[in-house]
Amino acid sequence: MNILVTNDDGILAPGLWSLVSELKQIGHITVAAPDREQSAQGTAVTLRHPLRVQRVKPLLAGVETYAIEGTPSDSVILAMGKLIPGRIDLVVSGVNAGPNLGDDVLISGTVGAALQGYLRGATAIAVSVESFESRYRDNAARLAALITGKIADDTLPGHLFLNVNLPDLPLGSTGRIRVTGLASRSHIDTVKEGHDGKKAYYWLIRQKIDRDAGENTDIHAIEQGDISITPLHQELLNKPLPGITDRLCAELLASLKG
């Protein structure tokens, strides 16, 4: 299995290399990620400027690694279209520092990068942890590897697009793994005005909405201490729900905690 690992937190982000450490036991890994932090870029693609690519020394030996002067989506498009010969079977994006829940998936660079892989025929997984300074990102990487293993052995169908979020909890304190839908709203955008002495400027501020999300949504799952798996190709592209069952979720959880 040929696996592309990417993110929106930048080429040196610990979460990315946690993923590489777990996934390199399953398939051949290539890393292509932004050369700097690129959060909240969504599906942005650079069309009017050249993109520069630098092959860099990996943090784990033996992994072909590219730093892209562009967005997360740029990274995947370049990797699959030019940098990597042959077929990429799986794109894994993350592990993101902070959740990607509800309508935040529409601006998430983590999810946007995974989407580019999915649109190009690869199975895609976006992986995030609830806390921006989580101590448990390795758990998220391990779960991504377990899901990858299920895809490799055909327990799960190919060409999925999954958004995985874990609560900021040790494994012994997490609840179930649940298949969820997207909550309708996770934040509200507000505008703050300032002045630098010469002219006015504005800050766009995302404020979390304190609301009771529906019990079958991703936000509700995280609030309950559960792990959320949302099949985004069902949510965004109107395709049938993949074969992720309660039994399979229970097997994944047992393996994760085992």
Could you characterize what this model shows?
The protein has helices spanning about 15-25, 70-85, 110-120, 135-150, 220-225, 230-235, 245-255; strands at about 1-5, 30-35, 55, 65-70, 90-95, 125-130, 160-165, 175-180, 185-195, 200-210, 225-230. With about 260 residues, it is α/β, with parallel strands linked by helices. The protein has one domain: Stationary-phase Survival Protein Sure Homolog, Chain: A, CATH 3.40.1210. Strands 3-4-2-1-5-6-7-11-8 form a nine-stranded mixed beta sheet, with helices on both faces. Strands 9-10 form a two-stranded antiparallel sheet. The longest helix is centred in the middle third of the chain and has 16 residues, at about 135-150. The radius of gyration is 18 Å and the shape is globular.
Tell me the layout of helices and strands.
Layout: E1 2-6, H1 14-23, E2 28-34, E3 53-55, E4 64-68, H2 72-83, E5 90-97, H3 109-119, E6 123-129, H4 137-152, E7 161-166, E8 177-179, E9 187-195, E10 200-208, H5 218-223, E11 227-231, H6 232-237, H7 246-257
Helix pairs in contact: 1-4, 2-3, 4-7
